Amino acid sequence: PVSIGMSLDVASIDTISEINMDYTATIFLRQRWTDERLCFDGNKSLSLDGRLVEMLWVPDTFIVDSKKSFLHDITVENRLIRIYPNGTVLYALRITTTVACSMDLTKYPMDKQTCTLQLESCKM
After folding, report:
1. What is the count of structural domains for the chain?
2. CATH number where 40 lies
3. Does 25 fall in a domain?
4. What range does the domain containing 73 cover?
5. Nearest CA to 15 among 26, 29, 28, 7?
6. Measured between alpha carbons, how far is 115 from 109 in angstroms, rounded to an integer?
7. Which of 22, 40, 67, 82 is the most buried (most CB within 10 A)?
8. How far apart are CA 103 and CA 105, in angstroms?
């Protein structure tokens, strides 16, 4: 198994819809793992064009309860791949996602809602 470190920053919560029972947020997702096949001599990291991600193994992470999501691609895809000499890979991307959130509005306007943002890895 490959150990994957992950961090997530919420850049913005764009909309909350009580009617659709969802919210839309823009997030920065960073994942880090080591792939010994990518080791190289040197002491500096390599930053690769995001289009090269198709040539690498990347974790199959997905957002649970996502209704729709997209990667930002203006002016180029907003993803970063950095490879370090020891084979450590940093993969970062910017995603906007609309996520389902069951809301209980029976105590409106004194209600309180808790919406989650869960990420999982698809296991085959």
Report:
1. 1
2. 2.70.170.10
3. yes
4. 4-101
5. 26
6. 17
7. 22
8. 6
Q: Does residue 109 fall inside a structural domain?
A: no
**Secondary structure (3-state) at 99:** strand
Any idea which residue has 């209980």 for tokens? 104
Count of residues in the chain: 124
* pTM of the shown model: 0.85
Contact 20, 92 (CB under 8 A): no
- Give a yes or no: residue 107 inside a domain: no
Q: How confident is the prediction along the chain (124 residues), in pLDDT tens digits per residue?
A: 889 999 999 999 999 999 999 999 999 999 999 999 999 999 999 999 877 888 899 999 999 999 999 888 887 778 899 999 999 999 999 999 999 999 988 888 898 989 999 999 876 5
Residue recorded with tokens 């199959």 = 60
The pLDDT value recorded for residue 53 is 86
- As a 3-state breakdown, the chain gives helix, strand, coil percent values, each rounded to 5, of 5, 50, 45
Residue 8 lies in a domain: yes
Q: Which two tokens stand for residue 45?
A: 């990291």
